[in-house]
Structure formats: structure tokens, C-alpha cells
Amino acid sequence: MDGLVLIHLMGHPPVSLKAHTLASWAYWPLEVVQGIAWSYTYAALIRRGALDKYLGMPLIAMVLNLAWEFTYAFVLPTPPAQKAVNVVWVALDVIILYQALKYGRKDYSWVPARVFPWVVAALLGYATVFHILLGREFADYYGIYGAQGINVYMSGAYIGLLRSRGSSAGQSMHVAVAKCAGTFSVTLMFLAMFPGRWLLLFFGLTVFVLDLGYCTLLYRRIKAEGANPWTGSWRRPAGTTADLPEAALQGTDLTKSAAG
Q1: Which residues span the domain enclosing 85?
Q2: 17/46 Cα distance (integer angstroms)
Q3: Is residue 161 scored above 50 in pLDDT?
Q4: Whole-structure pTM over 0.85, yes or no?
């Protein structure tokens, strides 16, 4: 006897069910939107990070994201169109990784400078093994559980990043909105392909709510700094770090980072 049970386990859990085939008119617009939106997100945060000398993505989220995209670009099988997109993303991720090694320690000044690159490398290796095992265990051809799990963490971590820095340094509305659009299109795609997988819907709604919250907080922060939020990553000048202590700008403060 199992005692009191409110919900019984399924004989054929949703994760074992095959995906519904979407018509081309439904699949390709969503695939194109998420590909373009995320590519723009990466390009915009690279530009913003270069201007402000700050990593444009929470460090741990960056590691998890790069590991997922590497795994599904070069290690595990995934749909050919998505694999091609992943290869492009990995190329952009390499630039973001460079910025992480160059600027990321500003959010973790308690980590010795000589140790920081090794910490990033160890985290990246661990995350890659995690995604390989997760994809294998679930036979996750689309990588959806790893992808949506990362997005839940990343969306919350962006809010932590903004609060920790006390500034919009390294961040922009263009990044925030493009990320939200890209992830929402993925949620719609997965909802149509896997209507019985409620966990994916739960993840998607969680990400959407967190992204809207981050967009609102970031917009207010940039306005409070006296800048126009919509001049974007390309034209808003550097200098949004004005409210940070000088020591923080040199990477010797911000020890209470919630960014990663």
C-alpha cells in the first residue's frame, strides 16, 4: 500500500511520448523567431559588455547556456535546423566566454584572480557533462528540459544581477526584450509539440513572468540613471556604472553578488 495518493504516476509518462509534428507554416516562424531573437540577444549583450566592461549575462547562466549549446551542436543529436543555429550560437558564446574571463570576476571579487579562470573552466566542464547525461537519460532529442531549466535559472539570475550591481552596467532593454521574445517563441513551439508535458509549460510561464519582471525593473533602473532605455545596446553610451563604487568598477567589490 502506498498510503494516501492524490496523483498516481502514469504508466506511460509524458516524457516517453513522441512529439506532435507541426505544420511547416507553424514550425518555421517559431524556429526563425527564436533563432533571430537569441542571436540578437547575444550580439547586443556582447556590445553592451564591451562598452561597460561588465559581463552581460549572469556567470553561472552563461556557463550552463554555453554547455547546452555546445552539447547540442557537437555531441548529442538534435533537429538539423536547430543544430545549425546552435553552431552559430556557440561561436557567439565564445566571445561571451572571453568577456566572462575578462570582466566576470567583478561580480566575484572574493575569488582570487589566478583561480577565477580555472573556476570557470571547471564549471563549464561540469555543466557539459550534466547536459550530456541529462539528454541521454531522457533521450531528449530536442534538449528541451535542459534548455527550459536553464532559462528559469537565467531569468531569475538576471534580476539578481541587476540588484547586486545596483546599476544597469552590462545590461540593456534590447537584451531583455529579445531574450523574452526568443524564449516565449520556444515555449509556444514546445506547447504545440508536447501538449502533455506540463512541466515544460510550467517552465515557460515561469520564465515569461520573470522576464517581464526583469524588463520592468531594468527599465526603471535605466530611467533612474537618466538614460533612454530604448536607445539600446548600440547607441546608449557607456557610463551607466556611475552609481557603483569606484572599487566595484575595478573588480574589487560586489562580494555579495547574486548574479551567478
Answers
A1: 21-249
A2: 39
A3: yes
A4: yes
